[in-house]
Amino acid sequence: MNAVQTPLKSRPAPAFYIERLRADFPILKLEVNGKPLVYLDNAASSQMPQPVIDRLVRYQTTQHSNIHRALHYLSEVATLEFEEARRKLQRFINAREEREVIFTSGTTDAINLVMHGYGRKFIGAGDEIILTTLEHHANIVPWQMLAEEKGAKIRVVPINDAGELLIDEYEKLFNERTKFVGVMHVSNALGTINPVKQMIAFAHARGVPVLVDGAQAVPHMKIDVQDLDCDFYAFSGHKMCGPTGIGVLYGKAAQLENMQPFKGGGDMIATVTFEKTTYNTIPNKFEAGTPPIAAAIGLGAAADYLSAIGMDNIAAQELALLDYATEQINSLPGVRIIGTARHKAAVLSFVIDGVHPHDIGSLLSQEGIAVRTGHHCAQPLMRRFKVSATSRASFAFYNTMAEVDALIAGIRNVQKVFA
Ligand code: 7TS
After folding, report:
1. Left if phi > 0, otherwise alpha if psi is -120 to 50, otherwise beta: which for 220?
2. Ligand 1 atom showing the smallest separation from residue 107 Cα
3. Per-block average pLDDT, block size 10, for the chain (419 residues)?
């Protein structure tokens, strides 16, 4: 009955199909220390396929100018392409309106925009902001800065030993002072997929808006912001096969319209006198100055590239990689996986008895294998697991089962060196 399935829907996808996709990524042909590159640091930044590189070259060689300001040919072309990129991103996350897509420099910038634009206007002394133990520093520090400035308080949702949020505890944190919830969709350090739709519904029933940090979700699964009903959703281009320096803040139009601007300058104004400035409408109100035009257009191409493969197919292939890698790592004595949630995306954090993660990282790199070692910008989470750091393999759809085998061989080698 599965005759109509695309190749990636079978788990794992046939090797020839993955090889065809890999051929799109020039960097994957590199050798590192005389070995084929095994790139397993996709949660930090993914690689860029040729169609996205080509799009950037086409923009720079035939379309570049500043946008929204001149009537000459190139300015009109660049403006049209930039706004078309916004529509591509709108479709990619199923936003209701294109003006709900704000281009930012990344997830961090998007969250800071909400903190300044929404938080500083609507959150005051004694108010409470709910975050979770899993959060990346990008969704902790801005809220701490706000809490300090306003005299607000941060409440934190605890997790269990598998790295899953305790939803009962989340619900108990709400009271009449709760003004905001910030939660990541997928944990960058553990891979846990959080039940954000359920959490949003609970918050909304109490009149509380929710920001979802989607940096690790957008590259790996189909995101529908209308279905989630989140007020804000933040993500980065460079984790979804796009360029660095570009990201998106999705916000419901009604929320964005009520917010104050974050950055002041050109493009975000309607009129300026030295007595008073009036602001532009959204999205321009939040895009002061010349935006990263090329990067936004590149990100539009990345969204097209991922959509052509199909986000459900990508999720299925990455899950097959995760299952296989989990099984293989579990078979190694002395290696422990940190983060064993029932619902996980393709992130595998581990520790090896008696070996510091930084030594693991350098020894694996000698074999051409790229993993991230450290606290993954989630120090409170590391503390919860009583580790200072982990090693993390994070997969993309272009990774192969053979690369998982290379990782496992690399880990065995590390254990031999430290035996
Ligand atoms: N939120 C999450 C969940 C992230 O994983 C990251 C980056 C950010 C926010 C910040 O994104 P940026 O594009 O603004 O920097 N995470 C990682 C990581 O796991 N390893 O390197 C960067």
Report:
1. alpha
2. 14
3. 42 84 98 97 98 98 93 96 98 98 98 98 98 98 98 98 98 98 98 98 98 98 98 98 98 98 95 96 97 98 97 94 97 98 97 96 98 97 96 98 98 96
Residues with Cβ within 6 A of ligand 1?
Answer: 43-44, 106-108, 136, 138, 184, 188, 213, 215-216, 236, 372, 376-377
At 70 the pLDDT is: 82
Reduced to 3 states (helix: H, G, I; strand: E, B; else coil), residue 191 is: coil
Q: What is the pLDDT of residues 145-165, one digit of tens each?
A: 999 999 999 999 999 999 999
Mutate to test the pocket of ligand 1, among 108, 113, 372 (most ligand atoms within 8 A of CB): 108
In angstroms, the Cα distances linking 228 to 202, 213, 222, 244 are 12, 13, 11, 26
Task: Give the pLDDT score at 390.
Answer: 97
Output the DSSP codes for 263-297.
S-STTSEEEE-SS-EEEPPTTGGG--SS--HHHHH
62 Cβ contact partners less than 8 Å away, ≥ 6 residues apart? none
Instruction: Report how far ligand 1's centroid is from the alpha carbon of 393 (Å).
Output: 15
Of all helices (H) and strands (E), which one includes residue 175? Answer: none
Ligand 1: nearest atom to the Cα of 186: 3
CA of 136 to the centre of ligand 1 (A): 7
CATH 3.40.50.11810 is the classification of domain 54-308: no
Give the angle subtended at the CA of 185 by the CAs of 9 and 256, to the nearest 5°: 120
Each domain of the chain, given as residue ranges in start order, spans 15-36+310-417, 54-308
Is pTM beyond 0.85 here? yes
Q: Do domains 15-36+310-417 and 54-308 have the same CATH topology?
A: no
CA distance 273 to 205: 43
Q: What angle (nearest 5°) sits at the alpha carbon of residue 377, between those of residues 375 and 382?
A: 40
CATH class of the domain comprising 15-36+310-417: alpha beta
Q: For the residues of 108-174, what is the DSSP string, one character each?
A: HHHHHHHIIIIIHHH--TT-EEEEETT--GGGTHHHHHHHHHHT-EEEEE-B-TTS-B-HHHHHHT-
Instruction: Give CA–CA dist 110/251, Å, rounded.
Output: 10
